[in-house]
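Box 4.2: Ligand-aware structure prediction
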Amino acid sequence: MNPTIEQFRKRAKTYSSSANWISDRRLIKAHLEACARRPPGHVLELCCGTGMVGRDFRAEGWSVCGIDLTRAMAEEANRYFPCICVAAENIPYLDGSFDVVVLRQAYFLLEDGQKALAEAHRVLKPGGVLVLSQTVPYSAADADWLGRIHRTKQAQLKRFFTEETLALELKRGRFRLARRRRLSVRENITRWLAAAPELSAAKRAEVCGLIDHAPEAYRRLHRVSAKNGEVFEDWNWVVFTARKKKLP
Ligand SMILES: C[S@@+](CC[C@H](N)C(=O)[O-])C[C@H]1O[C@@H](n2cnc3c(N)ncnc32)[C@H](O)[C@@H]1O
């Protein structure tokens, strides 16, 4: 089986509460605020997982559809809005079907990110927006160490992105960057690792050790701390609002 599907199949039932960022209100709201000037229309959540972002769009009056590669995740999302199990690289919707496409914390997992962006571009209406978000380094000072942590904790990582390399991806995908917003979400690393069934005990210890013994610049930027045997740190999020150009 595809290892990405295998990883998220194991996580599907407990995914929604497996890390703080997944249900963080400020982070979810940032995706809605990225489209605040639009009246509610049609939104497609790509790689939607259990549909945590789409649920809020639905509550605000949007008509929501989702797609996810992992059937067990798509089934969870399908409890809240129609969701189908397909790859983001081959979206089964007609051209110009959506006002907004959302993609949170999955671009780094995609086999062919540019193909998924081309598909997102195709299914958006002219003037529609892609809201793409992901965890990225705070600056050059933590980038190498964070890349090391991500490569250790996520075997399915296809490429490690910074804010700038993500922005370039969007431009290459023919999107115009309208806005970018940054926010920090504090994570309990010990709890997060315990909820990652795909990681062996040795891998969990390795990830925890990399954070606990990170260089000073990393520890300062991520505000690493330990309390009662648990390790905490901030994750830096970027939320891009990227526009599909209107027809001339
Ligand atoms: C880290 S989870 C993020 C889920 C959701 N976007 C969220 O923010 O809670 C990544 C999700 O991407 C899905 N995924 C990975 N590769 C995919 C692909 N090529 N097409 C569609 N979904 C994909 C996985 O199945 C998983 O549910």
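In the box above, the bound molecule is S-adenosylmethionine. Residues 3-138+154-184+237-244 form a domain with the Rossmann fold fold (CATH 3.40.50.150).
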